[in-house]
Amino acid sequence: MFDLALLQSVSYIAGALGVSVAAIYYVMNLRETNKSRRITTTSNILNNFMTTENQLKYLELVKMEWKDFDDFTKKYDSRVNPENWSIRAYFWGAYDVLGYQWKEGLVDIDLIDRLTQGPEVIWRMFGSVIQEYRKTDYASDAYKNFEDLANELTRRRRLKEPDGHLFEIVSHTKPYDEVFGKKS
After folding, report:
1. Distance between CA atoms of residues 115 and 179, nearest Å
2. Which whole number is the average pLDDT over 150-166?
3. pTM of the shown model
4. Under a CB-based contact definition with an 8 Å cutoff, are residues 131 and 62 in contact?
5. CB burial readout 27-62, b (16+ within 10 A) else e
6. Is 80 exceeded by the pLDDT of residue 166?
7. What would the pLDDT profile of 9-65 be if each residue is shown by its tens digit?
8. 62 CB contacts (<8 Å, ≥6 apart)?
9. The pLDDT of residue 176 is above 60
10. Alpha carbons within 13 A on the beta-carbon side of 70
11. Chain centroid to CA 80: how far?
């Protein structure tokens, strides 16, 4: 016959085992839910960049040309060209928020890496301009999250392509037609 103490011990062990399994399941489910939320959030943010209107704005940015910071301010500073500034402010600000969300773990960096090169391209074009504005008009850490995001995406791209072959970045010193060819 079974000892009552043995049955009670088995009952306690079974209960503890049940609670442990439930806790493990809960943690696994919570991780999957968080991953799914990050992917959904990231996709929603990136879809905003993929609209026709925003693609045309993006194209306006990559077509910009200037020789140095002084030339840039004469052509594109917000006091001279507020329309161009509003497009830059939109992308710079959006990428800065995206960088902040990445740092906080709210968006999926792998998905950003696979779906866009926008932050890298725009930082490579405008990083030196932003750094100059930090000396005169902006806070010393203005667009720092954008900078960090672009640097992380560039680092990841270099790891994927160790031979050093990176995608062609449109340079503000090269005319648009030279990089993309003449429009037909």
Report:
1. 22
2. 79
3. 0.71
4. no
5. eeeeeeeeeeebeeebeebbeebeeeebeebbeebb
6. no
7. 888 888 888 888 888 888 888 888 887 877 777 777 777 777 888 889 999 998 999
8. 121, 125, 170, 176
9. no
10. 0
11. 29
Is 54:160 a contact under the CB 8 Å cutoff? no
- Complete DSSP assignment for the chain: ---HHHHHHHHHHHHHHHHHHHHHHHHHHHHHHHHHHHHHHHHHHHHHHTSHHHHHHHHHHHT---SSHHHHHHHH-TTT-HHHHHHHHHHHHHHHHHHHHHHTT-S-HHHHHHH--HHHHHHHHHHHHHHHHHHHTS-TTTTHHHHHHHHHHHHHHHHH-TTS-PPPPPPTTS-HHHHH----
Phi, psi dihedral angles at 11 (to 5 degrees):
-65, -45
Tokens of 157: 């791209």
- Cβ proximity of 108 and 158 under 8 Å: no
Separation of alpha carbons 40 and 47, rounded Å: 10
Instruction: Return the domain boundaries, the chain.
Output: 4-180
- Residues 151-170 as b/e (b if ≥16 CB within 10 A, e otherwise) read ebbbebeeeeeeeeeeeebb
